[in-house]
Amino acid sequence: MGANIYRNKKPAFVFLLPAFLFMVVLLYYPFFKTILNSFMHLKQLGATATAFNSPWYANYEEMLHDPNVWTSVKNTIIMMLVTLVGQVGIAIVLALMVDNIGRGKQFFRTVFFFPIVISATALGLMFNLIFLYDKGMVNQLLELLGKQNLTDWKAEGIALFTMMAPVMWQYVGFYFVILVTGLNNISDELYEAARIDGATALQRVRYISVPLLHNVICTCSILAVTGALKVFDLPWVMFPKGMPLKSTFLTGTYMYYHTMETKNVDYGAALAVLIVVLGVVLAKVVNAIFREKDY
Amino acid sequence: MMKKRMMAAMLAGAMVLSMTACGNSGDAGSAAGTGGDAGAETPAADAGADAGQEAETPVAEPTGPVELVVTTTFAGEDSNAQNYKDAVKAWEAETGNAVVDTSATSDETFKTRVATDFETGSEPDVLFFFNGADSNSFIEAGKVVSIDEIRAEYPDYASNMNDDLIVASLVDNKKYAVPANGYWEAMFVNTEILEAAGVAMPGANYTMDQFKADCEKIKAAGYAPIAAALGNIPHYWWEFAIFNNQSPATHLEIPESAGDENGQAWVAGMNDIKELYELGYFPDNTLSATDDETFAMFTEGKAAFLIDGSWKVGGIVSACQSDPNDPATLDSAKLDKFDVTYVPGKGDRKATDLVGGLSSGYFITRKAWDDPAKRAAAVSFVEYLTSDEMVPKFAQHGASALKNAPEVDSSQFNVLQIKAMNMMAGTTSLTGAVQDLFAGDCRVSTFDGMPEIVTGRVAAEDAVAEGLEAYHNQ
Q1: What whole-number distance in Å separates Cα of residue B23 and Cα of residue A121?
Q2: What is the pTM of this model?
Q3: Assigned fold of B183-356+412-472
Q4: Which residues of chain B are at the A interface, by a Cβ-Cβ cutoff of 8 Å?
């Protein structure tokens, strides 16, 4: 009798129901509604669409000819590469260095993790001041070093760098903490044995730390790539409406632009569908590349 | 076994109920907090809720403290942001009611927010908003109450206003919004830069050719002639560039196509801005800067001319205070260096023909009107904010729709407000902004597309044609 309770799974379904309903109402319903809206004529957020576009796939056709869509997809892919190299790459280096110091590990963990707890909007405003054209921090420093002309850090040629640098900086600490935790899980005996065998510090990293961190690095990489698809707030605060000349749009900011700024809600919905498709495809690719190993 | 099943079902039920209760608790809390007094629920509200009589239109009497949700554009650098806060506080003290203020700086995101609030049924009770095309969607949906309907119950509502000056809706020609203060758009000048560049202060006969000659001198002196962020807020230059190729009589006519006479005027206006850009009269970062940045260039003596609205007087005064919120910290010597004059004219538009009018007003929403607890409070709020005593505080040096506008007490004005008043005295005409009629996605190709136009990536004719097509498809 007592063991029957474990065989009967029905109560578990009852407990799962609230969470399931929550997901249906707040995620799946809006998701399928967005797909439907992308085929409808809808110019006002919150309004009810009453007619299909003519032809019904007009928004998807327009997407193919919209240069800003390609700019935003290209920029998003660049953002992914930057997050991989800039966030995970730098985090690996920092984690390995901190793991090799005797004292102050906790101090560096806190220092590097701190940007994560600051809101992206606040960071955007802060970096706006840092990169400000007139009397911004960077331009003042360059002026002190003897530069005569002001640099427009938001000009078309370098705007992407100015946008991506703060995003990269913000999340390094997140991956750093995950990687440091991974390093802590590697047994000291392995390092001790290698040291006795005469391995240098670099060799210990190359042949012990990095291979045993493989799965953690894979997890970080997947998080970084999928996270890059969702980056929105900091780029929007620093470069609203994809300025300058619509060159800094990401898929997320371009979708928001059409939904909130141009009152082209159905096109925004089509862009949202594109983001989902892009996310699914890229997640598959990343999972295939960064496959975890069994040890 | 049965007991355990029952227990599981009860626990699940309790979870669902607790979630529901959580959802309701906010409402309960807000209801309890109505009027800022937990125990002060109105009898009318109770009666309506108990009897389920929402469908009936109850007679609104001031039944007790209520909480009004109010959205306005009196926020940020708006000249009247502080006046509005003071007025709300005074009304709250006088009536015992409370205001939940959701005001924000007026921009496209704000307009979208307001429209979305109406669509989703979360509109405010009272709204100070544009009475042009921006209000079409909620007027079409019947979500605001006309002044005539309000007067049927409150005959004195807005009776102190000259009805002829209250702007009618583009949807049904009815009047909905009670205006508080008018606006004008003109050209602010940093006279310190003019002196440094050897340029005389522009006057009433200022032409575009003279303006370009002055810009050349200012540029040669090492300053940016025009403070404008074309990639962010090209609105003022857009309006006047088009106006300069039309006349006050034709400015509010929206072209049928880019090829007709008015359409060509719009194209010529866009090309005029392009010419100024190519001549290097805008700041180097005009395509990547925000409006705040170029405004700071103007107030910090790095750019000479700024076309903007009457609300910017307050912004300039704040920039001359060491503490923007404390008028006592005003640097009068710095403020003396700013002036305001007419926008250079061209063709049939004289410099003294300005853009302005009464483009905003207080709307009472249908939701508040149908709420027996809020109807009287909403009317009282609008009447208070548009009273003969309050309007002059908001209108300052601008126009109002008051029947008996009191004599302006300029002794309370700062030097820039007096200069603005003198400038307005020489105005030959005040025409509304055509962009107020040309709202929505039709603006995108020439507003957001301005950087592409001035850099030659998109032809002005194509951008205007795209916008007009969107307008006529609305």
Answers
A1: 28
A2: 0.82
A3: D-Maltodextrin-Binding Protein; domain 2 (3.40.190)
A4: 1, 4-5, 8-9, 11-12, 15-16, 19, 108-109, 112, 115-120, 137, 231-232, 283-285, 287-290, 293, 296-297, 300, 302, 440-441, 444, 448, 451-452, 455, 457, 474
